[in-house]
Design brief:
With about 210 residues, this protein is mainly α. The protein contains 8 helices and no strands. The longest helix is centred in the N-terminal third of the chain and has 32 residues, at about 35-70.
Length: about 210
């Protein structure tokens, strides 16, 4: 796989994972619905910053393992593949679970700094994100990748995550787009589970 193809494959895999609802998704939804659209957008930026940070850390760790601990890197690929299969199963099984979007009546008003900070804390405290990033990178990054790829990925991850969660904030602050998404949630989650499961299988098969 060429570096450019790997770049698009990684961004696509991470986008699929972001689309499937998890703690970050639910936080942005609740912020946009219960506070304001602007607070939801501030939360989206917080999610982007957190994802870019994890992406940079995962890249740094993988580069170190690939050059200094090849055996441990193989173990990481197998463990990452198993985790992705487990995550795919959880996403598929939870596809019918509803997303709670009801207003909680807090009435706290808009506080963009607080919304950004809580979103960043939510993203940084999510235990699955670093495992997902590490596993996706291990599955799709070429072993002899150029330095520009390591530099471009965190910035593009920030733009992608922020853009996706901004769309979530905009959609869930309006009733009609919210209803359309919730109506398609079952198939969105099942598609996400299938893609993540396929990545897990590939990661295990390529570990050698």
């Amino acid at each position: 796989m060429t570096p450019l193809a790997a770049l698009f494959a990684i961004l696509g895999a991470l986008l699929v994972g972001a689309i499937s609802p998890g703690p970050s998704f639910v936080f942005v939804v609740r912020t946009a619905v219960a506070q304001s659209r602007a607070d939801g957008l501030a939360a989206a930026v917080g999610m982007g910053v957190g994802a870019a940070t994890f992406g940079a850390l995962a890249l740094l760790g993988l580069r170190t393992l690939m050059t200094e601990a090849a055996g441990l890197y193989i173990v990481l690929k197998i463990a990452g593949g198993v985790y992705l299969l487990y995550l795919a199963y959880r996403i598929w099984r939870g596809a019918r679970d509803p997303v709670e979007v009801a207003r909680n009546g807090t009435g706290n008003g808009s506080n963009l700094g607080r919304s950004f900070g809580l979103a960043l804390a939510t993203q940084m405290s999510n235990p699955k994100i670093i495992a997902v990033f590490g596993a996706v990178f291990a599955a799709l990054l070429p072993a002899d990748r150029p330095l520009w790829l390591d530099l471009a990925l965190p910035a593009l991850i920030f733009l992608q995550e922020t853009g996706w969660y901004a769309l979530v904030a905009l959609a869930f602050s309006s009733s009609r787009p919210r209803a359309l998404y919730l109506g398609a949630k079952l198939w969105i989650d099942r598609f996400a589970g299938a893609v993540i499961g396929a990545l897990g299988i590939r990661l295990i098969l390529e570990a050698r």
